[in-house]
């Protein structure tokens, strides 16, 4: 961080500012903001249809079509509340290097007690965000909304893939602290490995009650939503919950002790209507506003 309170890049060229999310200030707003957005335009390991690198820009663009006010929550985004740092500039053909750049930015945000929101981008980019949040908040629990288990030990010989990301997350926080909902696709081995896995969202309220005030990380793969509502994603899986159901699930998590989150796998070229990006943007807005009502601020460690 800089003495003036703006966000100081880890090194020149780490952050780019291609646009801003609804009602957000830019990097100059960092010091006063309680919420920090960062784009993760990563598309290196997508296994079916690429295009998620354009997700962050599409989510920002779609957000300006939303109101700053949520009638469901009777709350509104306030000036100075949100800072959009822009996108992490990622190297091509260097997965480990890309993850390290994301991790470095996320560490700074989490250390400064800000609510970190990642806009993606392929799901592997969740891993460094979880690592940063877990380092700041021991005992972190991860809530995972997705159509796919993402629990493979490796995929085509690689341990780092959007098909393996939740296996790596489980290794980071402990498999017993990974809670998965909406999962309706995966290998037999993945389902055998999972500790807490549900094919829909019905078990979520009871789990949130069980977790109490433990710190939560929420990761949303947009393909958790039935592709009738969100077709703009690389690996659509029919049979999922509605957009309304996922919005309410995100609000429910955000009303707890939510310390960081992401919305991933938006591939705008696969959805000319733009409704996938619009839903992703609304998920972010509702999470910010629902969380604000709790007054939760991540506690600095050390």
Distance between the first and last residues' Cα:
18 Å
Helix content: 25-40%
Number of strands: 11
Report the CATH superfamily: Ureohydrolase domain
Q: Which class best fits the helix and strand makeup?
A: alpha/beta
Q: What is the CATH third-level topology name?
A: Arginase, Chain A
Number of contiguous helices: 8
Q: SSE string, helix = H, strand = E?
A: EEHEEEHEHEHEHEHEHEH
Low-confidence stretches: 1-5, 297-302
Average residue-wise pLDDT: 93
CATH class: Alpha Beta
Net shape? globular
> Whole-number radius of gyration?
17 Å
For the biggest sheet, the summary is: 9 strands, mixed
Q: Number of folding domains?
A: 1
> How much β-strand is present in the residues?
15-25%
Quick overview of this protein structure:
The protein has 302 residues and is α/β, with parallel strands linked by helices.
Describe the structure in your own words:
With 302 residues, this protein is an alpha/beta fold. It has a single domain, classed as Ureohydrolase domain (Arginase, Chain A). It contains 8 helices and 11 strands. The strands form 2 sheets. The protein has a 9-stranded mixed beta sheet, sandwiched between helices. A two-stranded antiparallel ribbon has the order 3-4. α1 crosses α8 and α2 packs parallel to α3. The N terminus and C terminus are likely disordered.
């Amino acid at each position: 961080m800089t003495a003036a309170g703006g966000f100081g890049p880890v090194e020149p060229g780490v952050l780019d500012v291609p646009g801003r999310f609804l009602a957000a200030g830019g990097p100059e707003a960092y010091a006063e903001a309680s919420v920090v957005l960062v784009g993760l335009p990563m598309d290196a390991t997508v296994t079916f249809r690429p295009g998620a690198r354009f997700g962050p820009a599409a989510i920002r663009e779609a957000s300006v079509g939303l109101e700053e006010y949520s009638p469901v929550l009777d709350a509104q985004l306030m000036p100075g509340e949100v800072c959009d740092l822009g996108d992490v500039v990622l190297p091509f053909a260097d997965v480990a290097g890309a993850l390290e750049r994301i991790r470095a930015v996320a560490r700074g945000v989490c250390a400064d007690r800000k609510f970190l929101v990642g806009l993606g981008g392929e799901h592997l980019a969740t891993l460094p965000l979880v690592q940063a949040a877990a380092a700041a908040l021991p005992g972190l629990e991860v809530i995972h909304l997705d159509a796919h288990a993402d629990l493979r030990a490796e995929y085509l010989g690689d341990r780092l893939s959007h098909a393996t990301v939740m296996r790596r997350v489980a290794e980071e926080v402990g498999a017993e602290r990974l809670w998965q909902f909406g999962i309706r696709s995966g290998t037999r081995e993945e389902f055998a490995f999972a500790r807490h896995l549900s094919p829909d969202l019905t078990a979520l309220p009871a789990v949130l009650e069980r977790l109490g005030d433990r710190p939560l990380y929420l990761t949303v793969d947009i393909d958790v939503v039935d592709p009738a509502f969100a077709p703009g994603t690389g690996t659509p899986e029919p049979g999922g919950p509605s957009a309304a159901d996922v919005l309410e699930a995100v609000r429910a998590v955000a009303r707890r002790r939510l310390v960081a989150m992401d919305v991933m796998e938006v591939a705008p070229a696969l959805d000319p209507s733009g409704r996938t990006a619009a839903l992703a943007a609304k998920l972010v807005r509702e999470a910010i506003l629902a969380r604000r009502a709790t007054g939760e601020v991540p506690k600095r460690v050390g």
